[in-house]
Amino acid sequence: MAVMFLWILLPVLILAVGVAGFVTMRWRADRLRVDALQAQLRASEHLLAQTVENHGEELRRVWTEAAEQGRREIETQARQAISAAEQAAQDQAQAVREEMQSASRDVTAAAVRSFGTSVVSLGADVGKVVSAALREHRDDAVYETLIRIDHSVQQMIRQAQSYVIVSGGLPGRRWPQQAVTDVVGGAVGRVRDYQRVRAGQAERVVVSRVVEPLVHTVATLVDNALRYSPPTSFVDISFQEGHHGVTILIDDAGVRMNTEQLEDARQVLAGERGVDILELGPSPKIGFPSIAALVRRYGFNVYVDGPNAFGGVRAMVFIPETLLVAPHDVVVEQPAVIPAVVTPVEPVEEQSVRENTISAALTASGLTKRRRRTVTQPSAQAPSLHPAPAPVLHPTAAAASAPAPAPQSAPAPTLQLARPDIAVAWHSGSVSGRHAAAGADHTEGMNS
Q1: Where is this region: Disordered (predicted)?
Q2: Is 295 part of any domain?
Q3: Using N-to-C axis directions, what is the helix angle for 140-166 and 2-136, rounded to 10°?
Q4: Is 47 within the bounds of a domain?
Q5: Which of 210, 380, 393, 409 has the fewest CB within 10 Å, making it most exposed?
Q6: What is the total count of domains within the chain?
């Protein structure tokens, strides 16, 4: 019985041992798998932590950079917006200032032009009074004084015309066609110390619309040459005729301009540097600016250079062929003898009779004596810069009661001893100055 029980219990024990061994092995295997999984988990957690740490630092850096970039962009945009607003305000303020300056410039130019025109008109009136007095008074001293007054009036008119031109006005009335020689003669008659000017002759003829501008231009250049040269020197005017036109050359022996002054003058005359009427200052120099305005409007050219052959300055006025015409077929007869005294003749349109003309006679000693005679003016015709032929000397002329003038060695020439060409030039300028002044009241504005 016991043996049977053992045989029954043995398989149970073997089965129990087998099950126990299987369970143990299975537990060990599960334990190993769990340990492996835990190791993987720890490795994953470590890797995750390391990755998060690394990428977090990168993310923080990127975020910081993005925030900084955004801040900079915002600041840049803000600065640009502020700058644009400031620029717009500045542009608006500048536009307002320019508009105010333009209005002030226009008002100033209009005031200067009006004042200059008034002075020119008053000068013309004074010239008419002097002309009437010249016809009325026969006393030599009075006649000489009136001549000097009239010459000073013509200089005043020329200066006033310069202001009119700089402020946008026209130089005066339009003349008929004139020879270049007459243009220069009319210009010389409008300057001080005209006795010191020696001018040549040219046969070409200038169109009518540029006669007065050229007279004013040459007068301004000659006056400038006379002012800056010694009183004992001469200013020479010559002509160069070329294929493209005629050039008037004005040479002085005075103080020459330095390099900076020459360049400044060239820029003004060439129109490269404008002259603002508001910037002329308390002692304005309007000679070159007025010439530049005429150059721009009428098409001739003016240059200055130095030193010339005399150590002074040379001014050149180039008149292109478009402003020239064929010379008139008029032969001007030269007097047989040189006159010692030439009395200016009044403008032909005044239809007056010169009762105070003085001629001279030669004596055996070579000195001159004067006598009075009456010269009747021709009928009214177109005005001209060139006066009627001056009275000449005749060997058989009777001597007058007036004393003989000093010989040619006198230190300073007077009106009685003026050279014929100089007296004619003075009268040309006197006549043209009065006519130009008479037309100044109806000038139109121009951009200068």
Answers
A1: 367-392
A2: yes
A3: 160
A4: no
A5: 409
A6: 1
User: What global pTM score does this model have?
Assistant: 0.56
Place of tokens 């020479």: 236
- Report yes or no: 345 and 127 within 8 Å, Cβ to Cβ: no
Residue 397, in any domain of the structure: no
What span, in angstroms and rounded, lies between the C-alpha atoms of 230 and 233? 5
Over residues 158-169, the pLDDT tens digits come to 888 888 888 877
List the domain range (segments joined by +) for residue 228.
176-328+417-428
- Alpha carbon of 185 to those of 248, 354, 386, 398, 431: distances in Å? 12, 22, 8, 31, 11
Collect all residues with Cβ–Cβ distance below 8 Å to 250 and sequence separation of at least 6: 218, 221, 222, 225, 235, 236, 237, 314, 315, 316, 317
Torsion of CA 161, 164, 167, 171, to 10 degrees: -70
Can the peptide bond before residue 307 be classed as cis, meaning omega within 30 degrees of 0? yes
pLDDT in tens, 405-443: 333 333 333 333 344 444 444 455 555 555 554 554 433
Which phi and psi (to 5°) does residue 193 adopt? Answer: 55, 40
* Widest Cα–Cα separation across the chain: 208
Pairwise pLDDT comparison (21 vs 378), residue with the higher score:
21
